[in-house]
Every structure is written in C-alpha cells, then in structure tokens.
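Form 7-S
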Amino acid sequence: MIEFLKKHLVLLVVLSLTSCVSFPPPFIPFPGERPELPEYIMGQGYVTGENLTLFLLSNNPHADPDFVQRLAFYYINEAAFEGVNHDIAFAQMCLETGFLRFGGDVKPEQYNFAGLGAIGNGEPGLSFPNPRIGVRAQIQHLKAYGSTEPLKGELVNPRFRFVRRGSAPTIEGLAGTWAADRQYAVKINSILQRLYDFSF
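Output:
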C-alpha cells in the first residue's frame, strides 16, 4: 500500500509539470497486450513517456522530475526519428548512468547518457551541449550498430564513424562491442524486464 501511494504521489508531481513541456508528446501505438521484450535495436518502443518518467523516479527518487520527464520525451522523439527502439535506449541510459546517479568518470553536466568515449581509468568521454543532443548522440550510436541505413538527422556523434555499420543488430550484440562487459546485454535486458513489469 505504501509503494502504491508513493507511485501515485510521484505521478501527481509529474502531471503537475506537464504544462511546462514545450513540445507535444509523440504518438506511441498501444500494443494491446504486454509486448515481448525486444531483441532488435531497430524497431518500435511501447513504453509511454509518463511510464518512462515514473520508472526512473521509482529507482532514483532524488532525480529532478521535470528533467526526467523531458529526457523521456527526448528518447521517444529522437529514437522514433531514426527508427530505434526507445525502450532499449532508455534502459541502456538507466544502466550507464545508474538511473541518473552517475558517480563514475562521466559527469551529469556532460549530457553523455551512454558512456560514449568513456573507456575507464578516469577518461570521461564525450560531452554534449545539452540533454537532447546527448540523447541524439546515443540514438545515432545505437543505429550505427543496429542498421546500415543512413542517418536521417545531422551527425552529432563524433564516434559514429568508428562503428562497423550493422555489426550488432540485437541487444545481445552490444556485449563486447559497445561495452567490454560480456554481461552488458544481460544487464540491459534485466532493466527492460523491470521496465515492462512496471509499465504493462
């Protein structure tokens, strides 16, 4: 009962901020029933911006609700534009940033939500001018691995050219390519499972 009340209290806070969002939410098709966990990077995501926001806040109640809400819609919009599954991209961000806690080499003000260029030993990796560009860079990197199709938007990710296009079309393929961690795909799928349990 306490968790139920907490969840709905967060929902009220987020909804009270909705009028501050300066862009309309994109259309997300209702799957009709609980969707299967995605396998391929390219494709349709199903979790709404509201549920992405609530899920992250439930895992990090200290995160700024307004920032998280805007970030969720950036993921949906940017991923849809390039044909990437936003559920996967958002789950990857949650893994890479510790649900926006950061704490590693990458700092919050870098707006680098997927550890791009952060190779350890104090190397912070790339920095981006704002959160939306940071999300766009991650989406472009996912598309580089997941597809051989050209980008639709202007390239903002300087590491895009280092990826062999279409070399990892599935989440499984990101282990040992995007990250050296052989359990990388398992960890992303674990967060996806929790996200779908939360949302559907």
